[in-house]
């Protein structure tokens, strides 16, 4: 085989492989499931025997799919606000009579959306307490679109928090489990506050309040608490909020010095008695002092060596 024929063969093989990869990778990239749902959460206080209707809008931003609506109860999973779905059939059957919605498969084309109407009716004999559910839009696995199994099983959900109370005003009670920060810090290490709030009542609530930090003989800083739901029987780590963004409850600035008195104060859902706790932190530039001591020792050693 001449050099010219060899070069031609290599180029031909390269172009064949390139064309094959483009032909295969193109459709794979397109086969993506992307769903959104609104509203992401519904909070409801309702009397037994009464009804409430909610609309959940599911929008498809990916390939055409077929979805089916489901509702599962859930329980709080951890202190970060995650939930664990209860998907065993007995638990699902226990609440079958609470909900009326269309369970037939619904086809969604690309950019299409569908409104799911859900009617909620707690039975007249329902116990007065909180019930937590997640409305699920789940992609059917037998969609025939060539989507791989993991994507075919994709789902998206919106939480539904239901407080059942005959008087319409369920009891709410909060406690401060943890309000903490280091007692002594280096001036350059930063100061972050940990807030853990527990729910001792019979209904979920949001803490509405702030952390007020006073530097003794200095300025005052206010850190606003994020109004995150704390569910019954559980606790929740509470972040702070700044310009509608969740942030750590951290003092601004890169250098702190002095005594800082922090006061946590909040109310349940913005009303009632204020719940408060106060802590202190001392900030001192230990790193600077240590650096100066190190420099002084090195200097003395150099002087001593130079004099011998």
UniProtKB/TrEMBL annotation:
Protein name, per record: DUF916 domain-containing protein
Keywords: Membrane, Transmembrane, Transmembrane helix
Membrane-spanning ranges: 279-302
């Amino acid at each position: 085989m001449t050099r010219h024929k060899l070069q031609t063969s290599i180029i031909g093989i390269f172009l064949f492989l390139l064309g094959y990869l483009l032909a295969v990778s193109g459709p794979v990239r397109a086969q993506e499931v992307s769903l959104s749902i609104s509203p992401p959460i519904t909070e409801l206080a309702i009397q037994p025997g009464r009804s409430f209707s909610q609309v959940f809008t599911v929008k498809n931003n990916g390939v055409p799919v077929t979805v089916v609506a489901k509702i599962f109860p859930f329980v709080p999973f951890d202190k970060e606000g995650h939930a664990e779905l209860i998907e065993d059939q007995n638990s699902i059957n226990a609440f079958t009579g609470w909900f009326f919605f269309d369970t037939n498969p619904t086809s969604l084309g690309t950019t299409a959306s569908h409104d799911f109407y859900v009617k909620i009716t707690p039975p007249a004999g329902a116990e007065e307490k909180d019930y937590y559910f997640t409305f699920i839009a789940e992609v059917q696995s037998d969609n025939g679109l060539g989507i791989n199994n993991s994507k075919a099983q994709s789902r998206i959900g919106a939480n539904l928090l239901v407080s059942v109370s005959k008087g319409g005003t369920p009891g709410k009670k909060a406690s401060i489990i943890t309000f903490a920060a280091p007692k002594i810090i280096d001036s350059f290490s930063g100061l972050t506050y940990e807030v853990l709030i527990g729910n001792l009542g019979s209904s979920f609530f949001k803490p509405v309040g702030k952390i007020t930090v006073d530097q003794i003989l200095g300025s005052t800083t206010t850190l606003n608490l994020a109004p995150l739901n704390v569910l019954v029987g559980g606790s929740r780590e509470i972040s702070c909020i700044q310009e509608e963004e969740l942030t750590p409850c951290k003092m601004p600035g890169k250098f702190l010095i002095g005594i800082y008195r922090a006061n946590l104060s909040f109310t349940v859902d913005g009303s009632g008695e204020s719940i408060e706790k106060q802590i202190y932190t001392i900030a001192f530039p230990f790193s600077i002092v240590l650096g100066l001591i190190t420099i002084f020792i090195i200097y003395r050693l150099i002087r001593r060596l130079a004099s011998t």
